[in-house]
Amino acid sequence: MTEAKRNGRPTLAGIWQTYRLKITGTLSLLTAERMLGVAVPFVLGLAINDLIAGSMRGIWLLVGLEVAALLIGTLRRLYDTRVYAGIYTDIADRTAQRLDIDVSRRAARLGLARELVDFFEWELPELFAALIGILGAFAMLIYMLPLIGGMSIVVGLVVFTIFVISRGRMFNLNKLLNNELERQVTMLESKRDFSRRRHLSRLARWRIHLSDLEATNFAIAELFLSALIIGAVVVTVRAGLTVGEVFAVMTYLIGLAQNLIILPWTYQQSIRAGEIGGRIAAN
To answer: Is the dihedral of CA 176, 272, 78, 3 positive or negative?
Structure first.
């Protein structure tokens, strides 16, 4: 193990600094895969128009795009598993060696360390892929129908503002939940039924509060996105586009809505991972 790995702090920034080349490799493959995905609705629209005109050109282009996405996606998944298994081994080993904290807290922090690495392996790619999809949809919608593109950017900014406003509340709730998780082994070993029930009730309370906050963000975001899609249907039909172009525009809008809806969960997970990283690295 290198000196950087021995001394690297298991925070989000510390993990990135220590393993940035490996993580950059996974994100680069993800970027290539998602950029191909962004192109699919546009090429599919071309394929529809070409088929209507009696040409197979668009179909062959679509086949090439899908094959390339399949190969890159498979390679990324094979690489990801090996990278993050190694990262977790390093972090878990350092956490288990912490003799300055009791065994129950070390056991709890091993579970939290797994969550931290899972964030890099699963939630960060989800967040990264969603952002690529959102920016790609903005660009393609502005190119194909500027009015719809402008409307989608406004809605995107509204959704982003909702998440920023709720950040402090999310962090505090995750801190309270993690405080209780670190006491779990001690509480479960207790012979007092009241202590165990109080511990489990607190866990349930913080998880419910987090879920309620996520549901509220989802509802507000969904309201604006529904209005965007309904308005876009009217604008698109009146714009006199071809069948393939209408299909592409609506596909980008639906994809944009799906990616924006992913953000409440991935954003909450990024805040939780940040709190976990600080907790594990704390002296």
So the answer is: negative
Q: What's the rounded Cα separation, in Å, for the pair 271 and 117? A: 14
Residue 282's pLDDT band (cuts 50, 70, 90): low
Measured CA distances, 222 to 42, 155, 213 (Å): 25, 10, 14
Please list the alpha-helical segments (H only) found in the chain. 3-7, 12-52, 57-96, 103-118, 124-144, 146-165, 167-182, 184-189, 193-238, 243-281
HSE at residue 38, side-chain half, CA atoms within 13 A, is 21
Q: How far is CA 149 from CA 4, 36, 157, 174, 264, in A?
A: 45, 20, 13, 36, 22
- Dihedral over Cα of 188, 189, 194, 199: its sign: negative
Distance of alpha carbon 248 from alpha carbon 245, whole angstroms: 5
- What's the whole-number mean pLDDT along residues 252-264? 88
pLDDT-based confidence at 32, cuts 50/70/90?
A: very high
Could you please report the per-residue DSSP string of 103-130? HHHHHHHHHHHHHHHHIIIIIHHHHHHH
- pTM comes to 0.81
